[in-house]
Every structure is written in structure tokens, then in C-alpha cells.
């Protein structure tokens, strides 16, 4: 049995902008707050403002990272970003020292991204407590840096959490990652008024940041092409451009698309949407043609609203997406021809939208049950505290 006194968890979140990882964290905070007190170390920005309603926020100008994910690993000009991480070591150190002085007791530290390797190392100097690490992106385990990082994680992390089976498979087996899937909590008071198949227009949705590697540039190209051919379609966006620092801008590493692209006729940008119902009730299909061979959080969110997805995948993610059953996928990243053909399929086969949407809802209801995954995460915390103090 555990004490009725709440344990203190410090969450370390490296992204200042609103992101899928922040949204996923928030969903768990809503449930966990009855049993834990929360502290957050996060850069100044929108994420910091959102987290203030859950607990005490300690701000920093940035946190030092090392990115060995399949997207962000260092190559060519991206090696320049190492200078940014070196510059951030000192403010990261000062923020950790500040927490040590001001916070009476921390029972667990939960790092919300696997990129936080240098920050984890600095925390180890000051805090002899259990470390939990969330892995939300595919990891490169077989390159030189991947092998070094895996040895570091094995020695210094008490439990690694993967958000799905494919993320877990990208990590070495000896790290014993546990799967805690992202969850989505819909308000019972919210009314969802999506009117599908009631008119001839096909409403295509995209939610996320406007970055090239997420395939939005390809989506807009195909959309404009079909509009020229007189297809009755609309594109509804819910997202923003990402503000990058001067290093990204000088060396053209920001990856943002041209802002003029979203000004095309027939495109509506809703910006950041707090109530997702307001976005999903306006669309028939979700399109997420990312180059990363990974499903974004938005795919399973859409499924909760019985909306099928169009995605770019090399592999089938059976726990959250099944090709030809919960949506349609294509394998060649950047293939506008494949994307166009799938959109045309849904345009001429509207009943498939309803059928696949229903299948998607059933799949995520089974695999992404909020109570089931919450209990897994809660037990990870309690086990980490118990085993660390014994």
C-alpha cells in the first residue's frame, strides 16, 4: 500500500510550441492529478502557458538535446545544430540547480522526449530519484551514436515508455520498454454534429504544423490540381507555422512550407484549435501524408470521431491503423500521384468513408482505452518509486 500523501513528479518537456507530445502529456495530467503533484521544466512559450494550469512551471530559455531519431539525426548541415545544444548546456544546468534549491522534494522525473540525453545527464548529478523516459519517435539504434545512447539509457533510466509497438521495436530489447499508448479524452458534454455525405463536396482535413516533412506541401499541390479539374473539394487546415531560432533560419533548416501556399482558393486555415470537435465536425477524411513512416496523434484522434485517414506508411500500424479497413495508405513518401489517386477514390466512393470511419472508431476504442493505459502509467510510477527506495 502507498501513502495517501501525493508524490511529486517533475516533467521535463523540451518543446516550447504546442505539439502532439504536449497534447498527449496533457491528457494524462487530467487523470493523474488526483494522485500526484506536478512540476514542469519547460522553455518559455505556448507550452509553458498551457502547463501552468496543472502545476508549478519552471521556465528555461531552452533545454540541451541530442537527436538520434530517424528524422532528426545529425547529418550534413544539421551538424551545425550541435552548437545550439552546447550553448544550451549552461542554462539547462542553471535551471536544474534552481529546481534543486526551490523544490522541497521530487519523487520521479519524467522526461517527455528521448532527445533529452544531455539534460538527463545533468539531472543525474543533482537528483538521485527514478528517471522515466518517454519515446515518441522512431529511434536509430544501430548507428554509432545510437549504440552509445542505448548504453547510457540502460544505465541511467529506470523505465522507458514507448507510445506504440513500432516505437518499441525501434529500441533495443534489453531496454525493456513498456507500451503506454496516447489517449484522447472526449468531453461527454460536447455535441459532435458532423454531417457526412450530405452534400457533393469532399472536405479534406489536415491537422499539425506546416512542415514539409509532414507532407502538407504535397497535399496542397494535389488539392490545387484537383480543383483545376473541377473536383468539388475543400481543404481545412488546423495548425501553425513553427517559429525557429536564428540557426535554423540562417542555414534554411526550418522546414516550414511557403506561407503563400495556404492562401489558395478553397483552403481554410483554422489555426490552433482548442476544441477538436470544432475541426473534426467539418471534415470527411483526414490526410496525414508524413514522410516519417509514422502515424501522428491526429490519426487516432480522427478515428474517435469516426473519420478515416489517408497516410504514408511503409509498414502497417495494426494497433492504430489498418490499410483498406480504417483508411488508405501509400508507401512512397512524396508521391503526389499516389495521394491524388486515394483522394479520388474517396471522392467517388463516399460510402467507404462511413464504413472505414466506423472501423477506425472500433479499433482505437479497443487499443487506446484511456483507463487501461492510465493504469499502466500509474503502475510504472508507483513501481519506480517502490523499487528505487527498497
Quick synopsis:
This protein has 390 residues and is of the alpha/beta class. The protein has 14 helices and 13 strands.
Structure characterization notes:
The protein is α/β, with parallel strands linked by helices. The chain has two domains: 7-183 and 369-389, Rossmann fold, CATH 3.40.50; 202-367, Glycogen Phosphorylase B (Rossmann fold, 3-Layer(aba) Sandwich), CATH 3.40.50. It has helices at 20-32, 46-51, 81-87, 89-102, 117-126, 144-156, 165-169, 216-228, 246-250, 277-280, 297-304, 336-348, 350-367, 370-389, and strands at 7-12, 36-43, 56-60, 108-111, 131-135, 159-162, 178-179, 202-207, 233-238, 267-269, 285-288, 309-312, 327-330. Helix 11 links the parallel strand 11 (285-288) and strand 12 (309-312). The chain is globular, with a radius of gyration of 21 Å. The two termini are 14 Å apart. The model has no long low-confidence stretch (mean pLDDT 87).
By DSSP (H or I, 4+ residues per run), the number of helices equals 14
- Give the N-terminus to C-terminus distance in angstroms: 14 Å
Helicity level: 25-40%
Structural class of the helix and strand makeup? alpha/beta
Low-confidence stretches: none
Tell me, rounded to a whole number, the average pLDDT: 87
Say how many strands there are.
Answer: 13
Let me know the largest β-sheet: 7 strands, parallel
In spatial order, strands of the major sheet run 3-2-1-4-5-6-7
Q: Secondary-structure element order, as H and E? A: EHEHEHHEHEHEHEEHEHEHEHEEHHH
CATH superfamily of the largest domain: Glycogen Phosphorylase B
Shape: globular
Strand content: 15-25%
| Overall number of domains | 2
CATH topology of the largest domain: Rossmann fold
- What is the CATH architecture annotation of the largest domain? 3-Layer(aba) Sandwich
Radius of gyration: 21 Å
In the CATH scheme, the class of the largest domain would be Alpha Beta
Amino acid at each position: 500500500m502507498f501513502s495517501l500523501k501525493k508524490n511529486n513528479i517533475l516533467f521535463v518537456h523540451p518543446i516550447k510550441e504546442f505539439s502532439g507530445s504536449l497534447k498527449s502529456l496533457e491528457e494524462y495530467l487530467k487523470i493523474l492529478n488526483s494522485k500526484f503533484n506536478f512540476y514542469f521544466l519547460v522553455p518559455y512559450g505556448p507550452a509553458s502557458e498551457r502547463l501552468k494550469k496543472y502545476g508549478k512551471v519552471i521556465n528555461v530559455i531552452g533545454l540541451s538535446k541530442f537527436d538520434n531519431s530517424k528524422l532528426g539525426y545529425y547529418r550534413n548541415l544539421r551538424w551545425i545544430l550541435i552548437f545550439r545544444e552546447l550553448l544550451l548546456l549552461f542554462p539547462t544546468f542553471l535551471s536544474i540547480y534552481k529546481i534543486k534549491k526551490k523544490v522541497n522534494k521530487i519523487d520521479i522525473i519524467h522526461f517527455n522526449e528521448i532527445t533529452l540525453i544531455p539534460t538527463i545527464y545533468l539531472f543525474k548529478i543533482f537528483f538521485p530519484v527514478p528517471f522515466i523516459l518517454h519515446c515518441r519517435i522512431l529511434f536509430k539504434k544501430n548507428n554509432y551514436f545510437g549504440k552509445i545512447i542505448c548504453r547510457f539509457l540502460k544505465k541511467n533510466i529506470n523505465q522507458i515508455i514507448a507510445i506504440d509497438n513500432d516505437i518499441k521495436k525501434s529500441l533495443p530489447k534489453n531496454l525493456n520498454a513498456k507500451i503506454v499508448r496516447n489517449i484522447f479524452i472526449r468531453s461527454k458534454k460536447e455535441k459532435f454534429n458532423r454531417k457526412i455525405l450530405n452534400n457533393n463536396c469532399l472536405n479534406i482535413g489536415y491537422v499539425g504544423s506546416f512542415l514539409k516533412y509532414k507532407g502538407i506541401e504535397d497535399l496542397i499541390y494535389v488539392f490545387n490540381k484537383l480543383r483545376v479539374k473541377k473536383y468539388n473539394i475543400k481543404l481545412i487546415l488546423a495548425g501553425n507555422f513553427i517559429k525557429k531560432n536564428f540557426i535554423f533560419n540562417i542555414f534554411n533548416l526550418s522546414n516550414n512550407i511557403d506561407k503563400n501556399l495556404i492562401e489558395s482558393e478553397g483552403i481554410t486555415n483554422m489555426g490552433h484549435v482548442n476544441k477538436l470537435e470544432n475541426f473534426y465536425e467539418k471534415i470527411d477524411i483526414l490526410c496525414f501524408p508524413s514522410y516519417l513512416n509514422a502515424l501522428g496523434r491526429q490519426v487516432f484522434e480522427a478515428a474517435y470521431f469516426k473519420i478515416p485517414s489517408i497516410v504514408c506508411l511503409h509498414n502497417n500500424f495494426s494497433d492504430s491503423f489498418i490499410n483498406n479497413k480504417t483508411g488508405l495508405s501509400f508507401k512512397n513518401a512524396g508521391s503526389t500521384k499516389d495521394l491524388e489517386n486515394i483522394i479520388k477514390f474517396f471522392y467517388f466512393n463516399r460510402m467507404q468513408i462511413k464504413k472505414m470511419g466506423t472501423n477506425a472508431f472500433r479499433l482505437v476504442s479497443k487499443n487506446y482505452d484511456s483507463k487501461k493505459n492510465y493504469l499502466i502509467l500509474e503502475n510504472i510510477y508507483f513501481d519506480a518509486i517502490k523499487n528505487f527506495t527498497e
